[in-house]
Amino acid sequence: MSHNPLLMPVGLPDFENTRPEHVEPAIRQLIAQADAARQTLEKNAQPNWSAVEALTDAYEPLMHAWGVVNHLMNVANSAPLREAHQAIQAQVIMCFMRASQSQPLFEATRALRDGPLFSALSPAQQRTVDKRLLDARLSGLDLQGAARQEFNTLEQELSELETRFGNNVLDATKAWALTLTRAEDVAGLPQSLLAMTAAAARAAGDAQATAAKGPWRLTLDFPVMGPFMKHAQRRDLREQVYRAFITRASEGTHDNTPVMERILVLRARKAALLGFKTYAELSLATKMAPGVSEVDRLLEELRTASLGHAQQDLAELQALQPGSPVALWDVEFLSERLREARFNFTEEELRPYFPLPVVLEGLFALLKRLFGITVTPANGTAPVWHKDVMFFHVDRDGQRVASFYLDAYSRPENKRGGAWADECISRRRRLDVSTAPARLPVGYLCCNQTPPVEGKPSLMTFREVETLFHEFGHGLQHMLTTVDVADVSGMRGVEWDAVELPSQFMENWCYHEETLLGLAQHVDTGAKLPLAMFEKLKAAKTFRAASIMLRQIYFSALDLELHHRFTPGQGSIQEVQQRIASRTTVLPPLAQDRFLCGFTHIFAGGYAAGYYSYKWAEVLSADAFSAFEDAGLSDATRVAATGRRFRDTVLALGGSAHPMEVFAAFRGRGPQTTALLRHNGLAA
Ligand code: ZN
Predict the structure, then answer these.
(1) How far is the C-alpha of 525 from the C-alpha of 593, rounded, in Å?
(2) Of the listed 53, 162, 471, 561, which one is catalytic?
């Protein structure tokens, strides 16, 4: 192989010439280079800033190339690419682990932290050192002898248990299916669900299955179960599906009960070894929330404000079903009937009002108003992975500050679903080389909307417009950073309960009349979005808001209780669940409810003692938006001033300072729940 595009300095990737066969040789070579550079540093680990930069230098080429490979996995997937990725992935992870587990590098970082040079570093540099040190400590590098040994064994077992927990949920979900054969069984189901369940029946061996005639195979996968619970008119079938769902992975060979208990025991022990009183305190050590009591207080404020409204929500459902008390398997069904009655519009009706070019124009105009930045198309100036991918530059005061790719359309054959923002290149300037210019950030923004058809541009649903705004919020934090230190520039280094602040903040603008009407224009007639329609969209936003909020409070409070106050081995997890539910639900769970056995977020994902982050971030984003409301949304001058302040704090500083400081720098005080409650129609 003569030229390998993945072996190049950090810069715009050569997407047009990168092939799956380039992956293994390039990554192998970059791993070897990173290892060699690390070993050199370890032999002569200096407690100074140049050593910090040198470690970044050692790993950046590998990180960048591996980032490109992962990006291609998401947007240009193929069997050969998957094989190449699979063949080398474990070695990449090991290579990064050798750095994070390096004792000499840890000692040097600690010496820098405790030495005379530290106080001369900038806040961003100090935070980088502190974060590297904390990460190392939480990886057990500060432990000696038997404690270190126990920690490593325990980490190993925990990771196996979490994998087993997830696999049990997958297997238990797969093990359950219900085949429906009669028309009355599927009464009320939408066409798309009939097609999906007939396809599932065919895949399971019913070669003749059709959407119109069945048979239809129900499963507990969310895309099937979600719409089924909303639309199935057969109450007994809804009950059957509901009961199967809440007892998933709670018995037989896939029983997660003992796995869950053991995970809690090991997490508590891990926290103790690292010097924390509970696992929740360990979890919060790397988050924005100052402590468990602050999270408790926030959840309690939201709970008190939503409980009464959630009871009213339930009474509304009860009125639709006189004579029979609303059961847990009626809630989704009745809510959907109420939604139809109240907001009689469909996502499809709105599509013609949101052609992508008009939406982008409106969005870019908003960015100009708020942040004083100019977005200009630059298609053709950077290689792309697909002809539909757009490329843009971002300028501020006539100066280029960033660029981004926008891959807007769905391509089921090789692009994953959902929407996301990611970094291609991070901003960085070597602070130990005074003449070095800053490397400018480049971002990826990816959505999955309908491609243009029949000469018409891509027409978006309102939900897709919101998603675009959301991802732009992440992208802006990456692109408008002014931080030069790679570890904490852009989205990097932001505590994860604060990561969704800029993204959810941007979503708020979709409910701002001037902004939304400014980006909606009928594709055929050029007509504006009717004001009545805008009002309906706004009203739909708060539909059953209290019930939805209460449900998240239930999960958050339960997660925190299990990781903070509950002592594994003493008392039962179910008792804890019932106790928390008695305060946070208006329709108590069944005695047989074992939903925790399927709660992968906290037992197999990264949300352990962190589920509250959803609500925490919503409080931040609503409170941030309310600064604009306070300034007066129709006062262009004050909106611009507030926007510049948001740009110069939240977007510019990103992870370079503690998020509580960043938030206070913008808002002039700490976060409050008032705005979130008001936006949800729950203000006192
Ligand atoms: Zn997000």
Answers:
(1) 53
(2) 471
